[in-house]
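Limitations

Structures in this collection are predictions, not experimental determinations, and the ligand pose is part of the prediction. Treat each record accordingly. The example that follows, with zinc ion as the small molecule, is included so readers can see exactly what is and is not provided: the inputs are given verbatim, and the output is the predicted complex.
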Amino acid sequence: MGKIVLIIVDGMGDLPIKMLNNKTPLEYAYKPNITMLLRHAEYAYPSVLGKLAPQSDAGVMSDLGYDPLKYSTGRGWFECLGLGMEPREGDLSARVNFGEVNNGKLSSVRVYMSKEELRSLEDEINSKVKIPADFEFRVGEDYRAGLVIRGGKTRLSQYVSNNEPGYTAKFYQGGKKLSFASGFKDLKVKKIKAVRKEGDDTAKLLNLFVKEASRVIKGSGVYKERAKKKQQLPNYLFIRDAAVSDPKLPDINRLYGRRWYAVVGMPLEKGIAMSAGMKVADIHEEPLLIDDLSKKTDAVVSALRSFDCVYVHVKQTDSVSHLGKYTEKYAIIEAIDRILISRLSKSLEIDSGDTLVMTCDHSTSSELRRHINSNIPVLIVNRKFGRNNDFGESACKKNHIKQIKKATDIMPFVNKL
Ligand SMILES: [Zn+2]
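Predicted complex:
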């Protein structure tokens, strides 16, 4: 049985950009190592969630073969699990962003801070915020955090809205829940609302938490220092995708009959990999792209000695897309080619039956600076396939494996090769 490496490049898919000769960043990137692999390659061009623009949770679940509409109980579960907060059934776990709001209007949903600033705010919030429930607040990377409110006597509910504009929660049968990148209608920041009666108390509790935490942040040393330096000010918490139950993903090792390993640094991706039953590498995201890719490449190569499948995640492409930096986006893809793909093309034995899959969780338009509902480009390298050309969105659209209609079809197909 051959080995499989699944590379998920966050938000890699994009739209053609005039300044890039009407090519997408993936098409524009110089990628000689990928091109070498195209002597045995086929493409797929599946949709992730049809007309809705997915977040990474839905995208990653789909790429691994889990239908998000069947399993997702809210992204917060994975996010907090990946932060090491151990949410339990009945606890409420949510994703949090440090943001900036002025006069009730949104200035930013992402206030980037250093590790030290984030740690310091984490301590202040945990020690000074008072709400009528036990909670734990933990920071992640850049502007991200997780919140777990312990269930205890209060019955917590997932039927609450997000206060982050741009992400709308939708609810499905059996308590399933998923948010979509819905774009902004206006910049007014709204309170969290109960979507059903049973969410009333939870909405109140979350609004109280936001109010209290904002007060504590504004009194903090971090805030005062930033104000002095005229830096963007974190004065608000955006809470989204609150979950109260385990999504109970079927064990991936049993699902595909192969042993899986994950080389991922972001809490969401760690949480999904942990839920799926993968062994997860003990790594975190490195601030420098080259370090990050080198460390992940080493981890993938060494995991291939003892595991059948390795899932590796690269975050930076999505981050720069949200900032509108399409030249950085293709440069990151070039670095992936140069560092990760070049090593893998040597460690994987394609001629003996190993497979390499490179795709993304969703497309992110770097001109629109948001996730879009476009189908995703998928490269599958396997000895059964003949030569192919020009890996990118247009080539995938033109010429793709017909059986792979949805992203959830990728892995079942690859697993049978
Ligand atoms: Zn994104």
